[in-house]
Amino acid sequence: MADSYTDAIAKLKADHDKTEALFAKAEDASPQDVRKIGVQVCNLVKIHMTLEEEYFYPALRGKAEADDDKLTEGLVEHDSGKVLINDLLSGDNDDDTFGPKLQVLGEQMEHHHKEEEEPGKGVFWQAREAGLDLVAMLDQMLAREAELKAELKAGDLPDAELLYVDAGKTS
Ligand SMILES: [Fe+2]
Ligand SMILES: [Fe+2]
């Protein structure tokens, strides 16, 4: 593994940057490449969200320095993105819908990353204020990421699970 990070936030921020570069690349790509990049970026975001949901967000929840509503808002944004991710990875989209849906996902993620990274307010800032052990968290995240990547390679990575949003609700 060539990547080395100072702590969990550095790793999460690197994921954000990698993700945004891929969304930008997809904008000018051929339909075939849009699909290839799209699948890659959806899986990357899916794994990133899992790491945040299993380690980062729960560690902050209930801490005096944390804003619980802001945490929930972030997780609702995850759910919103996961609806599109599961749809994009379903293989049910033709070229006319895959690209536009990917574009919307990219816009949502850019907004979400900005909020997580927001100085003096976002969850990354809150985690530093709360004095979380972000070095220990990095080790946990990297171990879990290796598992998830192995599942992905084996074709066993399940659909992203929605935590707050019931996507099947019609009324
Ligand atoms: Fe997130
Ligand atoms: Fe994130």
Fold topology:
Layout: H1 8-27, H2 31-60, H3 68-89, H4 95-117, H5 123-129, H6 134-153
The structure holds fe (ii) ion (FE2) (2 copies).
Q: Can you offer a commentary on this structure?
A:
- The chain is an all-alpha fold and 171 residues long.
- It has one domain (8-153).
- It is built from six helices and no strands.
- The protein has helices at 8-27, 31-60, 68-89, 95-117, 123-129, 134-153.
- Helix 1 packs antiparallel against helix 2, helix 1 (8-27) packs antiparallel against helix 4 (95-117) and helix 2 packs antiparallel against helix 3.
- It is globular.
- The termini are far apart.
- The structure holds fe (ii) ion (2 copies).
- The site of one fe (ii) ion has 6 residues, from helix 1, helix 2 and helix 4.
Features:
single chain; 171 residues; mainly alpha; 71% helix; binds fe (ii) ion
Total strand segments: 0
- Number of alpha- plus pi-helical segments: 6
Average residue pLDDT: 96
How many domains make up the 3D coordinates?
A: 1
> Given the helix and strand composition, which structural class is it?
mainly alpha
**Shape from CA axes?**
globular
Radius of gyration: 16 Å
Strand content: under 5%
Instruction: Extract low-pLDDT stretches.
Output: none
Biggest beta sheet summary? none
What small molecules does the structure contain? fe (ii) ion
Q: Which percent range fits the helix content? A: over 70%
Q: First CA to last CA: what distance?
A: 48 Å
Query: What are the secondary-structure elements, in order, as H or E?
Result: HHHHHH
